[in-house]
Write a structure and sequence with these properties.
mainly alpha, Globin-like, 6 helices, transport
Length: about 150
């Protein structure tokens, strides 16, 4: 297979090939196929997204977090790992090594951001208490005593 350039045509071909794999994947396919009504439109939107991310084209006009939030009840961190593995496989096969590495790095950062938006809840975090130290007299603040 000839390695694609990182241009709009190459990114479109990559997106098309990658999402063909996603749609056929046993774990990811059912979620994506249930969520996407018009694959042609969605693939065009995803190609615009990657063009904006990698080529700073400004073509993408969507909001990824609310789009994924609609499907939060079906998305797990393990599915992000599966998505990233398929992305790595597809980019390695279709793109030049530097382009594949850049696409994989960006996808990992985007996945991390989406996971924070979907799964991080501040109320799930322990509430920090005061710092605990073994204090002795030398650790106490010195106070000046005025006459």
């Amino acid at each position: 297979m000839v390695a694609l350039d990182m241009d709009d045509e190459g990114l479109k071909a990559l997106v098309d090939a990658f999402y063909a794999r996603v749609r056929a994947d046993g774990a990811l396919g059912p979620i994506f196929n249930d969520a996407i009504a018009d694959w042609t439109e969605h693939l065009d939107k995803l190609a615009a997204f990657w063009s904006s991310v990698m080529l700073t084209s400004g073509r993408y006009k969507g909001q990824p977090v609310p789009a994924h939030m609609k499907h939060k009840d079906r998305i797990t961190p393990a599915l992000f790992d599966r998505w990233l593995a398929l992305w790595a496989q597809t980019t390695d096969e279709m793109m030049t090594p530097p382009a594949a590495a850049a696409l994989q790095d960006r996808a990992a950062r985007i996945a991390q951001s989406l996971q924070l938006a979907l799964f991080f809840r501040l109320d799930d975090q322990p509430i920090p208490g005061p710092a605990r130290r073994n204090a002795d007299a030398t650790d106490l603040p010195q106070r000046s005593v005025l006459p």
